[in-house]
Write a structure and sequence with these properties.
globular, 11 strands, 18% strand, two-stranded antiparallel sheet, nine-stranded mixed sheet, alpha+beta
Amino acid sequence: MSIRSNLKDFFQEMNTLINSNEFIEQFKTSDSAFIRKRKLEFADIIYFLLTLPQKSLSISLGEFFESMNLPFDKVSKQAFSKARQKIKSDAFKHLFSLTTDIDRFYNDIKTWRGYRVLAIDGTTIQLPNTLENKNYFGSSLNQFGGVAQARSSALYDVINDLIVDVLFENRGVGEKPQAEKLISSFFQTEGFKKHKNVIIFDRGYSSRKIYRLFEENEGYFVMRSGQKNGVLKVISQAPLGDHIIEYEWEKKISKVRVVKFTLDTGEIETIVTNIFSTDFTEEDFKELYFLRWGIETKYKEIKSTLKIENFTGDKPICVEQDFYANMLVSNICSIIKSETDEIIKEDLVEKNSKANYQTNRRLLVYRVARKIIALIESSKDWIYIYSNLIYEIQKCRSQIRHNRKYERQMTRNRRKFHKNSKPTL
């Protein structure tokens, strides 16, 4: 089946699920919630939050109801804020999980030399700075007393542009423990069992425990290691070149491959992996590790384009709802982008174009957020709505410029508004 057919089935399943009594019973916060017909139903709240509202709550609600030919002031922002707290944030987490199985949407996935390439990295998410959020999620201390923040880590398919799993927890939870959770969970999935996978890590994740997780589950990793690695000195002290290094931990001998080389800048780079095949050279590992940059651009998209830190509520439950709604929409956009990118590619071949282009991500997010309710609710007109959406999106393109390099800026730019970062929603 095509991506289009798979997406249609997904949206139909999603619509049936959201409106089912079983789903409502499972994810409402109390037995007395949503037992009567009210102005704001369970499904209405879900649909509204999936539009990723960025304006003031009153304006966003008004536009939402006007789009359904209902009065602009049908529901007050106070009534909405109270009603949304009757839905567990796990409802959005469950809907997001429906998008994480890559084989559900693609007949053939993109790989690198036969490997499905994933990356794990973490970030902090700034939250509404309330005492409740500080107590629930933690905070980063500063001269003014601290700012409420949560820590998030994601397992991301860098080639197929899909968030496979994500954690959203207290800031006090470290990136390593979150990575261990993501790895252990991934090893139990059908996606791990069906495909040959390799997970890429930046510096800071090196540990005997993570190495052992991969060894025991026959998974593959590629990890950048710092020169001053306090976990395994035998790695940091290894000479330049390609070496197999053994170490002992918990009365068991393990081994890793260490590839150490000099960068153009003169810095020493160290790559640690458990891919021992001699078919993979130093250049191959450089190319493979470079693919990790995809997770950095994904975080930029989530924070800059989706504006994930512009939450629609102050309560922890509202923050979690918004977070997983963003993750869900991000994956839907990625799947749609794979189709529009293919259309663009075919068009460029036909025109014999020398330049490469891809879908403009900002327009993609904007149009999907505006059409997501129609995609979920429509059945008879779904193909017409989706085809028009695809046509609109593929017309707006961004040029791909390969091998661009810039020096890293170590100073902060205090501008709040940037010419290349205009609001999307």
